Fold these 2 entries.
Entry 1:
Amino acid sequence: MRLTLIIIGLLATMLISCSSESEQDKQYQDVEGEKVFNPTLLQVNIPENFPELTYDLNSNPPTKEGFALGKKLFYEGKLSSTGIISCGECHRQEFSFTHHKHIVSHGVNGLLGTRNAPPIQNMAFLNEFNWDGAANHLDMQPIIPITSEVEMNETFVNILNKLAADNTYPPLFKAAFENGKIDTANMLKALSQFVVTMISADSKYDKLIRNEGGIAFTAQEKAGQKLFENKCASCHAGTLFTDQSYRNNGLPLDPEYNDVGRKLVTGLAEDTRKFRVPSLRNVALTLPYMHDGRFKTLNDVLDFYSAGVQDSETLDPILKSNNNLGIALSQEEKEQLISFLNTLTDTNFIFDKRFAEF
Ligand code: HEC
Ligand code: HEC
């Protein structure tokens, strides 16, 4: 019995190594007797205080060439019907890839969306995307902004024609993908290869957690961290500062948008006005706040948690424990919390040339 298992095991190992060898062979194959497909694999380093990746790198291994194409596409206005709205227009690096000046997103012809652009950082660790989780795979997420009438308002057929007609793109697709095709699958894969490498893990908080030496919190930051752990970390949990669940944190309904959040995806009444708990990494830079960008400052956010939380059927139970609505906070505690939140800013990420347009 054991012997059989060992033999099966050996056979399986041989099969796996054969197939990986043939994968290798494929990469170094002569194409039409001349060109050699030989992309350079990019190492995606997971910071030691981070969880496992959720993105399956084996299904779309990032390469230097795929990254370069993805980055060019990210900053490409041709992805929109008007030729000027790129992904990078709404996701700006200096604000951790959010849209700073706009409460809700601003797309083609100045049309307004209904939601605030979230930061693009650490996407490779998330299970679902957008405030309501409407996209359950990173590769599929861009279909939403590209085809949205108020965002990029473009079709894939048009985009692919525009890219094929632009001299710079055909060689980039050839370098990044073995079949070299300018098609939707390759375009989405390239965008993901760029986005999965956008890992922000170098804040003062991270350096302290990783014991990188010479880093200490001030008394005020330490007090804020303690408050955060007691009052906020049940939802803004763990290294990513989100447990990735959908919750109603008691924002009064905005009559203008009447956004029901997660219910749009599940259709369930119990999901009404629930939104994904956002990560608070780089939160000092990602203003304005909440799914509709209603708060301009972190102080406004804390005033809301301490005095503005509104009861409703779907309000998260954590925010109405012992019949008290919200999270009681003194002015001093608010200041301490903000000092702690400021330690989550990662300037290396903001200034990382790899992700910059120019
Ligand atoms: C007009 C502004 C705008 C443009 C252009 C835009 N986005 Fe976004 N992006 C948003 C908004 C707003 C959301 C949140 C949408 C929602 O929750 O419904 C978002 C969400 C995302 C998310 C999910 C973030 C998360 O935390 O779940 C990713 C990834 C993303 N965008 C990538 C892209 C890419 C790639 C492109 C280009 C193909 C792009 N965006 C173009 C505004 C924009
Ligand atoms: C019951 C879960 C829960 C608790 C507890 C909680 N939050 Fe939140 N938080 C959320 C949810 C959900 C959102 C998004 C709500 C929305 O936009 O509709 C949010 C949004 C935020 C935002 C806006 C982030 C952005 O990118 O727009 C900040 C800042 C924030 N919370 C800070 C805190 C702080 C500080 C505490 C503790 C005092 C706290 N939260 C406690 C669930 C919670």
Note: Residues 57-199 form a domain with the Cytochrome Bc1 Complex; Chain D, domain 2 fold (CATH 1.10.760.10).
Entry 2:
Amino acid sequence: MKTQNDVTIIGAGIMGATMGIMMKKLMPESKITIYEKLNKVAAESSDSWNNAGTGHSAFCELNYTPQQKDGSINIDKALTIASSFEISRQFWAYLKEENVLTEPFIKTVPHMSFVWGEDNINFLRKRHEAMTKYALFEAMKYSEDFDEVATWVPMMMKGRDRNERMGVTRMQAGTDVNFDVITKGMIAFLEKADGVEVYLNYQVKNLYKQKDGSWNIKVKDRNTGKVKITNTKFVFIGAGGGSLPLLQKSGIKEGKGYGGFPVSGKFMKCMNPDVIKDHRAKVYGKAAEGSPPMSMPHLDERRINGEGSLLFGPYAGMSMKFLKTGSGLDLTKSLRFNNIRPMLAVAKNEFGLIKYLVGQVMQSKTDRFKFLKLYFPEAKEEDWELYTAGQRVQIMKKDKEKGGVLKLGTEIINSADGTLAALLGASPGASTAVTTMFEVLEKCFADEMASGNWKEKIAEMIPSYGKSLIDDAELCRKTRKATAKVLELEE
Ligand SMILES: Cc1cc2nc3c(=O)[nH]c(=O)nc-3n(C[C@H](O)[C@H](O)[C@H](O)COP(=O)(O)OP(=O)(O)OC[C@H]3O[C@@H](n4cnc5c(N)ncnc54)[C@H](O)[C@@H]3O)c2cc1C
């Protein structure tokens, strides 16, 4: 039997769930179907142990503020990410007030950057100077003083040479976010909402464009092995690492030339309560040359479902899979005539990345531990274990000059008629899911976004929508204060 609906969402991670809620709030009468391949929600990258839970707000991630050739610091990307995170906070605060999110999912954990070496210290000082001109970052503190830093992160300073020079910044308003809880809360709400159907253990196998502009979706029930075809007016491919194969199957011309480069993330984890109790921060260092942004080392306080832990990493791992639960053939199966050239060009041009990955894979347990000791000098090996977190698929795409480039952010690819959109890439990720989903809506529902009804509802969900939290300092302060109150966060 062929069923029909208005919106089909593929994937029940944070992106699919956010899209589902937005569509239901903006089009209450719509029929929405969500298909998730696994038998549970948020079990891939959005699972709490599969990501680092950093509320990415560019407070501490040094790769968002590159140094220019003239020595100045470009903070444009940091401003965009910080304001996007404020949009996520507004949306989550709205969902909390609407009783959609009923479980705790966010807490204050100060964000710090910690660097050694004169060049890095100069960089951090200049970065601090440039950033604190904006309300988004005005509360950021800078220190080179051993004793002051020791009050912020005592555990990192014990056993460290007092004469060692360092530069440190600290933002009290940093956060640790449990994206898993947010996703599950949103899907639980959708499961109860009129006109929404959520199918777990259903894998989308193919998508076929119809003459009337709609899409036929071929889905396999993994419990019974039965296959069905459903029809939909709009499809959002929010399948994480599984998005690229589905985009390729859709055959839209906008998806040609894209390839995926999978990198798996590993962390060292410590659950010893005596060690954990002394570290109250997410401390980011500087990434090694040639390494991708998600490889910036960080020592993080985490709290998952009430249980405290410390994470250190990530260490990169090689894997040919596009999903943690994927197949070793994923990369090979994604090869097409239209993406081989860009992928070969990336292999040739990104020598630094390849060298970094090989170095990471060759690391012994002792090498990994030595690296951790740079951040936590008195760490004991027996307190830490290595585990594999989520899988990321970095975008490779055509480039006129270089043949192909590796893109380390996210990208929305949509059909010209706005009936299909797919999200590729993984950074900054879950933290900016709300802004990313609004971008999908702006691309695919431009007329509706401009209509009075949608504008009104969006203003209710995101009071600052359409205004700049970068340029309007007062609005930025007011917005952060308001969401901090609802989400019970420190400012
Ligand atoms: C190691 C690591 C650390 C990270 N740290 C952070 C961080 O600190 N802060 C941050 O903001 N972000 C972080 N991220 C990124 C963040 O986790 C992701 O951007 C985000 O979770 C992606 O959400 P998603 O919904 O797109 O994908 P996922 O959560 O992966 O969800 C996609 C879903 O689609 C399903 N699916 C796939 N194929 C199909 C199919 N054919 N049919 C049906 N369903 C399908 C999958 O089973 C999965 O459930 C990190 C990621 C990694 C890997």
Note: The first helix runs from residue 14 to 26.
